[in-house]
Structure formats: C-alpha cells, structure tokens
Amino acid sequence: MKIKQSILLLLVSILTIFLFTHASLKKEVQVVKMPWLDSILSIQNDTTYVLNFWATWCIPCVAELPVFEKANQKTNREATKVILINLDYVKDQQKVLIPFLEKKRIKTSVVLLNEPDANRWINLVDSSWSGALPATLIFNHKTSYRTFIEKELNFELLDTLLKNSHINK
To answer: What does pTM read for this prediction?
Structure first.
C-alpha cells in the first residue's frame, strides 16, 4: 500500500511540474494599435530599435525569424530592442499565432498590430515601403541612424546594420 501511495504521489508531482512548466512557456502577444506604433517610432532615447514586420503565412518572414532570435539573444545586454510586429488577423491570434510562436520557440517580443487599413500606417514606418513583407526598420534617434529593408535578412547583414546603428554620425 505504501508503494502505491508513493508512486501516486510521484506521478502527481511530475504532472504538477509538467503543467506548471508548460503554462509558464505560454507565449503572450499584446494586440496594439496605431498609437503604440507611433510611440515606438517617436521614442527619444539611445536604444536601437529593430522593428520587423511579418506574418505567419509569409514564407520569407518565417525563414528569417531565427535571424531575429539570434540578434535578440546577442544584443540582449546592449541598448538594442528587437520587436516582431505580426500582421496576422487578430481573430487568428489564439488559433494560429500563439501556437506558431510556441512551436518555433520564439522568445523575442511579439506584438500583433491591429490596424487593417495599412494605408494609414505604412508611410509612418517608411515612405518607400510598398507594403510587401518581410520588412524591417532599424533606427536609433540618438545616433541619427535609420535604415529600412524590404526583403528577407540574413544574420550577417543584420549584425552589420546593428553595429552601424550605435555609431554617432
């Protein structure tokens, strides 16, 4: 009888640990609107911001996510903030986006931009942006650095751009 109780206690403990660990891995995604995007674009500090616009249905976007994960890990101690701005539908957040992020083990900050009228905000990001994905804006207001890339990035290019962003002009 003691063996059964010990085994049962062990199983309950293992299950509790598993459920707690799984719950803590749940990815959170904030749904944001234009004022949030505008506030990020106008923030005045010495941080370099990397804003990557992407969607789960965009093959080159998905292919470059590991590049941003690597950059986020590498720049974690520097004055750099990587934000993945997802453009999927808000209605797909729980069924598509969250499971996708968990499966890919994305640790970088992700927000879901809830602005269906792209014509209202695309020019705020960059006047040269056609609206194609992926697209990445890198800026640092203190160093007056700003670059916009409308294509899939590799780590070497992103790393070079980040190094340049910290150099005063």
So the answer is: 0.83
